[in-house]
Amino acid sequence: MTKFKPLHDRVLVRRLESEARSAGGIIIPDTAKEKPMEGEVIAVGGGARGEDGKIHPLDVRPGDRILFGKWSGNEVKIDGQELLIMKESDILGIIEEQVQAKKAA
């Protein structure tokens, strides 16, 4: 993939695919699916410049799974991949994976 670095407080995101089946087992065709509002951060900018003139780093990092608004970001195509560029303020939150500890038998 081409090296791409967003500027300032912008984030490059790849949408994560949604389930092709409903909870009841019905297969949903592509034309009826809504675009997923969950994604993976690919690259982040250097940070936002505060009122004090200093650059404040972003809270998200490459590899983070995030939730964002339905109409957030601008769709772009880079090296054949459809990606989103959005401001960090468009991100609603980071999805943290729960690691389940296995009990020793």
Note down, in words, how this protein is organized.
This protein is mostly beta strands and 105 residues long. The protein is 0% helix and 36% strand. It has one domain: Roll (10 Kd Chaperonin, Protein Cpn10, Chain O), CATH 2.30.33. It has strands at 10-15, 38-44, 48-49, 55-56, 65-68, 74-78, 81-87, 91-95. The strands form two sheets. It has a six-stranded antiparallel beta sheet with strand order 6-7-1-2-5-8, with no helix packed on it. A hairpin with a 2-residue loop joins strand 6 (74-78) and strand 7 (81-87).
Task: Provide keyphrases for this structure.
105 residues, mainly beta, 10 Kd Chaperonin, Protein Cpn10, Chain O, 6-stranded antiparallel sheet, two-stranded antiparallel ribbon, 36% strand, globular, disordered C terminus
Give the helices and strands, then pairings.
Elements: E1 10-15, E2 38-44, E3 48-49, E4 55-56, E5 65-68, E6 74-78, E7 81-87, E8 91-95
Antiparallel strand pairs: 1-2, 1-7, 2-5, 3-4, 5-8, 6-7
The number of strands is 8
Which architecture would the CATH scheme give at its second level?
A: Roll
CATH class: Mainly Beta
CATH-defined topology: 10 Kd Chaperonin, Protein Cpn10, Chain O
The rough form would be described as globular
Structural class: mainly beta
Strand order of the largest sheet: 6-7-1-2-5-8
Please report which band the strand proportion falls in: under 5%, 5-15%, 15-25%, 25-35%, 35-45% or over 45%.
35-45%
Mean pLDDT comes to 79
The main sheet comes to: 6 strands, antiparallel
What is the first-to-last residue Cα distance?
Answer: 45 Å
Write down the secondary-structure element order.
EEEEEEEE
Q: Which value, in Å, is the CA radius of gyration?
A: 17 Å
> What is the CATH homologous superfamily assignment?
GroES chaperonin
- Count of separate structural domains: 1
Q: Helical amount among residues, as a percent range?
A: under 10%
